[in-house]
Amino acid sequence: MSEKKFNDLDEETLFIVSQTFKALSDPTRLRILNLLLTGEHSVNDIAESLSLLQSTVSHQLRFLKNLRLVKYRREGTTFYYSHDDEHVIDLLQQGIEHAKHH
């Protein structure tokens, strides 16, 4: 029986994991992802729900989309966003539960 060692992580995996945690380290991105737990939302709806500027929401969504943490669909001129990674959503929910128990 062989044990896996921590140094078995390749550079790409390390980069992706560190970028995911970077995404989750920003309060605005956490608020957006938390809202997306409730379902699909337009950029305007996210901005209004979280009292943020539309430009701020768009910037953060672009960051999250580049990491494939959110996806979107277009309907006319409106973009609707939803979460795109159950693993990260599970991590987010566990983090929220952890914080609530302190």
UniProtKB/TrEMBL annotation:
GO terms for molecular function: DNA binding; DNA-binding transcription factor activity. It holds the Pfam family HTH_5. The keyword Membrane does not apply. SUPFAM superfamilies: Winged helix' DNA-binding domain. Residues 9-102 form the HTH arsR-type domain. Keywords: DNA-binding, Transcription, Transcription regulation. InterPro entries: ArsR-like_HTH (IPR011991), HTH_ArsR_DNA-bd_dom (IPR001845), Metal_resp_trans_reg (IPR051011), WH-like_DNA-bd_sf (IPR036388), WH_DNA-bd_sf (IPR036390). It comes from the Bacteria. This is DNA-binding transcriptional ArsR family regulator.
